Amino acid sequence: MEPLEPSKLPQPFPTFRPHRKHFFMALSRIWSAFIIIAILVAAFRFSFQPEQKEIFSRLVTGKNTDTVYVRQLDSAVLPAPVLTQLQREKTAVWDNNKVFRTADGQYRIFRLLPSNGVIDTCKGAVEICIGLIGIMALFMGFMSIAEKAGGIRFMSRIIGPFFSRIFPDVPNGHPAMGHMMMNFSANLLGLDNAATPFGIKAMESLQELNPQKERASNAQIMFLCLHASGLTLIPVSIIAVRSSLKNPAANPTDIFVPCMIATFVATMAAMFIVSFKQKINIFQRTIMLWVLGISAVIALLVLYLTSLSSGDLQFFSGALSNGIILTIFIAIVLGGLYKKINIFDAFVEGAKGGFEVAVRIIPYLVGMLVAISLLRNSGTFDVLINGLKTVFAALGTDTRFVDGLPTALIKPLSGSGARGMMIDTMNAYGADSFAGRLSAILQGSSDTTFYVIAVYFGAVGIKNTRYSIGAMLLADLVGIITAIILCYLFFGGAV
């Protein structure tokens, strides 16, 4: 038999080696979509709504104190709660609008710009990062002492049996485990100022193990998805708002248990979603024992905390949180003294890293906040909310939950925006109304997903976020659905 010519030999299937630019960059696509949708909605409103002739100027140079429009209203179209509120106060809240009564008895409606325009948003992003410099320097300085004293590795060994199962790519005893534990603990206690430096330090530790520096590793995705689910023990700020309104809630703490359940379910959903994607067996004996143990501890704390009044709960939370921070500080210093390290030099070395990280995230934060500003000021959320209300009304379903949804839609984009929306909802419908309570539960059931992505991935230079955004948003959706179901279970009789 004659040998075949080389051109006629069977050829192997070509190996697929995607170039980095061909990766599906989810964050890039979403960011682009935000800007395109916002400008298209603004263009439509400019063309077909006469009162929106200044919308382009507001998108660029507007301030959140600017009035978008003012028009007169017939009292017949105002809902009874708004009229009741106007009898007690000068201004009432109606959806996203404000209503007031003039001296001659006429009713007028106006609306403030939801967010600063692009120019002021850029300034605000830099101010946020400047505000982070001091906090980052403080906590990363103490983290540097803890690392040199061996405290982080000690914590890593404690949590290792659990974390080694859900973070299989992280070696046992690696400092990243201790950093992640510190971040989760700070989140649980509502220590936002401490959680961010701990979280960024965890991302930097995980980045050391990442073979592809611009592509998110499995461990980084798992960590950020768990972090973004926002597991918090005591929603202190929400309880404080409910008790400080002009018409406060009868029992400001009645949303505590639903908030705790909703955020816990969202966290478990994040762990299951990422574990499924990474082919991690979540039903391993060690994982289940740790999850059940943590759940039992949280349940016992919840049982105790539900017995406290609103004032006692806020006092307990503040004393516990601040006490733990000071305990960490003194434990780190004592550990450094015991190990005979140069404590102050170690602190300064770590603090310098905090300054560098705060500066490094500026472009990421500017880009994300500008896109969010355009989306909010263009009226995109109004279109979405009105569309949802129309759809559910046409289906004949209960639409009370739609009035609380603006908080859920804005929360992944802006924490302060969601907080303002929650307050507006409570003012409009009442703190003890169904919508008011739902907005409070939604506020406490998730974190600011896109802010987390911009800050944490930006801090370590990750450009390819892979499936992390989809996993986070899916966990957010689980939290939203859970919050709605819980609100009907706990407060279904509220108007």
From TrEMBL:
Entry-linked Pfam families: Gate
InterPro entries (alphabetical): Gate_dom, SpmB
Annotated keywords: Membrane, Transmembrane, Transmembrane helix
Residues annotated as transmembrane: 30-48, 124-146, 221-243, 255-275, 287-307, 313-337, 357-375, 440-459, 471-491
Span of domain Nucleoside transporter/FeoB GTPase Gate: 130-240, 359-463
Keyword flag Translocase: no
PANTHER family: INNER MEMBRANE PROTEIN YJIG
Protein name: Spore maturation protein
Naturally occurring in which organism (per UniProt): Terrimonas ginsenosidimutans
Source taxonomy: Bacteria, Pseudomonadati, Bacteroidota, Chitinophagia, Chitinophagales
